[in-house]
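re: ur question from yesterday

yeah so i grabbed the chain u mentioned. its 595 aa long if i counted rite. heres the sequnce exactly as i have it in my notes:
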Amino acid sequence: MTTPTESAQKASLSTLAELLPFLKPYGRQFLLAGIALIVAACATLAVPYAFKQMIDLGFGGNGIKSAAHIDLYFLALFGVATVLAIATAARFYMVSWLGERVTADIRSAVYAHVVTQSPQFFETTQSGEVLSRLTTDTTLIQSVVGTSISMALRNVLLFGGGMVMLFITSVKLSAIILLALLVVVLPIVFFGRRVRKLSRDSQDRIADASAMASEILNAMPTVQAFTHEKIESNRFTSMIESAFGTAMRRIRARSLLTMIAIVLVFGAIVFVLWLGAHAVIKGTMTGGELGQFILYAAIVAGSIGALSEVLGEAQRAAGATERLLELLAEESPIQSPAVPKALPQQAQNGATLELKNLVFHYPSRPLSPALSQLSLNIRAGETVAVVGPSGAGKTTLFQMLLRLYDPQQGQILLDGVDITELDLHVLRNAIGIVPQDTVIFSANAMENIRYGRAGATDAEVIEAARLAAAHEFIERLPEGYQSFLGERGVRLSGGQRQRIAIARALLKNPPLLLLDEATSALDAESERLVQSALEAAMVGRTTLVIAHRLATVKRVDRIVVMEHGQIVEIGTHAELVAKNGLYASLAALQFGVHG
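ran it thru and got these structure tokens back, copy pasting raw so excuse formatting
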């Protein structure tokens, strides 16, 4: 039976192999790095032999012959060093390039994958944790690809070549040293497993702290309004200290691993060299051979010590790779079909919409239906308001239309085509939305509005801003349309942010327009301006309006009243007031009896 530790170790050995798809495109660079690596290793292994020749033939001779040998072997030694320097520099350049290139590819791949995930993914994953994986974890992988793999291969070559040369120099001493080295491997493997587990724990603690910090930094006005600066600072400090404690346990384990490896390796070598010194005294070995043996033994010992270091780095990277692969393995339940259908040619008066028996539960709330047997037909060019108390399912309905979620039962037809049979980009390009919580990006006003249609000209952006009553306030900004709006639009009022969002939707010019409390953040004057702009924008397209303020929906074609995920009433304002049902009670609260 496999223990958890064993299964974790197996996973770690196979995890780094999962990076191969990212390495394959750069086979030529790996080949060049490999050639440089082999040349550098051969040059390193040639140094002890050059020393042996220099000692035995140079110092062993007399007069002119001895001086000639010394000159020759010193020149040879310098030549070897030059080759070693060039090959090492080439290896460093190539593997560093590979580390940077592969890391950039991984970051791009993970980010590109994450932005395609459905909202369900972000219900359970904090954005700060994703950012930690994109930065900290990829840096560890960069270290392995850009340094550790090269170091590991180099030291494997030096270890193998060094062992061969040791046996050529002295079979007896080499057999003894090999036996001693086998004993060294056991503690390295044992402690290596512990280092890997601690490395994964350390990365998890850092990710937790990053996620918490990201959340708090995005809510600074709230934190300061409730005077929680010290509390949040202490909470972050506590998490950082926890991460520090975990990191220190990892460092202690790695330090112990390094210490044990060095002591055992050099202890074995010293013992073998003691035997070699006695062999020279007895005349069974030359001084040059002993010098050569010492240098090869040092190379073998150094390569083992370096491999133990690399093993620690590789195990940290294995933990980081696991976390990145977890992100890449996440499959969004919302996918475009393999063979998508096309939308019919758009009519001049907008899109038709048909909802058939929709049933939907949020993944985080499987027992409470957000929509229940909801059916509705909306004609092209019709303006329909959706009203009801909080939690009635109004915003959920919009999320269904955008296919951010799929219903567990039922169908949504846009111009007669099931939206699950459309390419996601085709569907969403046909829909414009003005959300209740407007998102403003860290860019200028021009680019924020152009987000509605990436290829729009400056003139088209300005025209959309005019329609949304945003042009005047943008012109008054210090740099007009080139003014930076601040992270999340902190330099704008709520009403200004809302008008930017409306301009964005108008620029998109979609056949179906969704307005989620589009005028909720506006003052009376702005609301009047935007309302007239929206009414003009509704011409020639189908519009759905979510509204809590019923004054904004009196002039729509139909009002749909929702409660508990179901449609309970449909009609005009006058018809629904006359029915004296839920709408009439909502109207009575806002306008007084009978609106």
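noticed a couple things. The radius of gyration is 35 Å. also The domain at 20-329 is CATH 1.20.1560.10 (ABC transporter transmembrane region fold).
anyway ttyl
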